[in-house]
Amino acid sequence: MAGITSLPLFHRVRGGRVVVIGEGEAAVAKRRLVERAGGIPCSEAEAHHAAIAFVALQDPRAAEVAARRIKRRGMLVNVVDRPDLCDFTTPSILDRDPLLIAIGTGGASAGLAKHLRLRLEAILPQSLGKLARALFDAREALRKRFPDAADQRRALDTALQAGGTLDPLREDAAERVPGWLESADAASVTGRHAFTIASEDPDDLTVRQARLLGQADVILHDSTIAPAILARARADAVRHVLPYDGPSEGLVIELVRG
Fold first, then answer.
1. Fold of 92-124
2. Which of 100, 91, 87, 84 has its CA nearest to residue 54?
3. In Å, how far from its chain's centre is CA 177?
4. Yes or no: is domain 12-90 CATH 3.40.50.720?
5. Which CATH number applies to 191-257: 3.30.70.360, 3.40.630.10, 3.40.50.300, 3.40.1010.10?
6. Where are the domains of the chain?
7. pLDDT category, 87, cuts 50, 70, 90?
8. Helix or strand run (H / E) with residue 51
9. CB 95 within 8 A of CB 117
10. What is the DSSP-derived secondary structure letter of residue 192?
């Protein structure tokens, strides 16, 4: 089964120590990244309660020795330009605080990640952070209006989709949140929809298929449907291999091999 090569996580380091070993531009950049995230760069000798470390040593042998030594102390390690020694890699970051978009290539090409970020910088408005904060502030009101979590999700799906009331690419989306809450409903595509899938390439999905797959509560699929297609579904969607005659509620998508 196809899968991703790394588990994407956002690790909170604010107020905590992060080991940075080395001098020069690479080490300075790592210290700056740690400080940007609110962490405290420190030496190996000061690594009290530190959970992660960066090694930025130019000598390959010295870098390897340092990485192995630190790993024995129970820390996760990133070694600059040595993905084979890394427990984690650092992505290219698009910052729309508090919204962060991280683009990683598993160490394959930092340049590619950077240029994808630069393209996205030109597309995604600065107002995305305001929208994220507005939705955070509206959480309690949203819970009161939609006590059922599935109804909350469907209402948000409808509002945040392309052309929706809160379309994230709208500059004024954050200002529209209060008015949306007053009139929001959980109307969404429900019921059961069957698609015939002839390709293993998710890019061959129609816009409608991709949208419904991303919103579905239940996925019923042939055992031969490509993992890359199934990966387009919500991570928490319930999945069953066909034939399936059990109970299913909400938006149900049936993927049949064509």
1. Double Stranded RNA Binding Domain (3.30.160)
2. 87
3. 23
4. yes
5. 3.40.1010.10
6. 12-90, 92-124, 128-183, 191-257
7. very high
8. none
9. no
10. E
pLDDT at 2 over 70: no
> Where is average pLDDT lowest: 73-87, 91-105, 114-128, 149-163?
149-163
Backbone torsions φ then ψ of 206, nearest 5 degrees: -70, 165
Q: Name the residue among 198, 228, 223 with its Cα closest to residue 213.
A: 228
* Residue-averaged pLDDT of the chain: 92
pLDDT band at 98 (very low <50, low <70, confident <90, very high): very high
Q: Specify which residues 102 forms β-bridges with.
A: 93
The residue whose two tokens read 């994230």 is: 168
What's at 18, amino acid-wise? V
How much is the pLDDT for 129? 96
Whole-number pLDDT of residue 1: 44
Query: For residue 220, what are the contacts with CB-CB under 8 A and spacing of at least 6?
Result: 239, 240, 241, 242, 244, 248, 252, 253, 254, 255
What backbone torsions phi and psi does residue 30 show, to the nearest 5 degrees? -70, -40
d(CA 89, CA 29): 14
Asked whether 71 and 87 are in contact (CB, 8 A), the reply is: yes
The more confidently predicted of residues 169 and 215 is 169
CA distance 10 to 176: 29
The residue count of the chain comes to: 258
| Maximum separation of any 2 CA atoms in the chain, in Å | 63
Q: Within 97-160, where are the H helices?
A: 110-123, 128-137, 139-145, 149-160
3-state SS class at 17: strand
Residue 249 or residue 65, greater confidence: 65
